[in-house]
Design a protein that fits this description.
six-stranded parallel beta sheet, 42% helix, 15 helices, 13 strands, 386 residues
Length: 386
Amino acid sequence: MKRKICIVTGTRAEYGLLIWLMKRIASDSNLELQIVATGMHLSPEFGLTFEQIEKDGFVINEKVEMLLSSDTTTAITKSIGLGAISFADAFARLKPDVLVILGDRFEIFAATQAAMIMRIPIAHIHGGELTEGLIDDPIRHSITKMAHLHFTASNEYRNRVIQMGEQPDTVFNVGTLGIEGIKKIECLSKKELSESVHLDLDKFFLVTLHPTTLQDSTAEIQIQTLLNSLDKFPQYQIIFTKTNADTDGRIINHYIEEYVKKNSHRACVYDSLGQLRYLSAIKHCQLVIGNSSSGLLEVPFFRKPTVNIGLRQRGRLKAGSVIDCSFDENQIINAIKNGVSTTFNEKIKTIPMVYGEGNTSEQIVEILKTKNLENIIIKRFYDLKR
């Protein structure tokens, strides 16, 4: 009998990372792939990106509606509750043997709660990481304690998961799925990308700014500071991608949309570029700016510089191509100048990679196929030897 592997995806970014794992599971004769789409995938505001999953040839087994039409802390909290209820129904119908989830978002937190209580073994990708300015950080660590198999992106993260009491034989350093996607996809040419985003691209920045969700509402100040900084570089075009469905995300999106209206000759904004256009934009841009995890995980593989602003990614491993700065206009301007300099770009051509070599899905599938799941639900706390 095939082992049923259920993957939950709630955002465009998650799906972009999970697609190669999903393809490998679907093609394995010993496994049956189940897909649950939730969160932003089902929202018109965020581009109805579940349609891309279907265009890629996958069958979505369940669609779990959980997002309220608000980005306040109250609405996000209520969305988690609604998600837990709905995931319980979905899992009762699907009866998966293993639930595979990635990362640290509140949608995934809701799915994990339901699966843990329903005694479904949980495999967690990207545990052990730190993002100290976000609700994602405690959510990620909570998921680790509810999960039974752990697929980390580095040995440092593997050690941290073990430090949290997880048995070493359940924690596997497999690298990041993002690098695998980069290796397997054929990017668009700059001309093709220009035509696709309807902007004549010469030298351009790729910009994604998300809210820092553990701070009091600072989104308005942060986005205004960033936009003021970008005004100092009128010779560069800008591709913006919108925020995720996080607290105060709509504030950031509003300011970006207004900025693009005033600068339509050199700027554009997209709810979701999709994996192909997003990776193509990284390949051809001069600089990635903002606070997305992609700036640390995928961008260094292209030997491209990242200006990483603020606390959102504080604590994550960073390659030498990442330039950190705070939400200060002068610091951002200086970081951008450094990032586009010939000296810095020459320097990062030889930086070592910190997130694996791109065979992540192969390793995960082999473990999902062969791991003995008998009695895996009852976990023993692992105490580090002192």
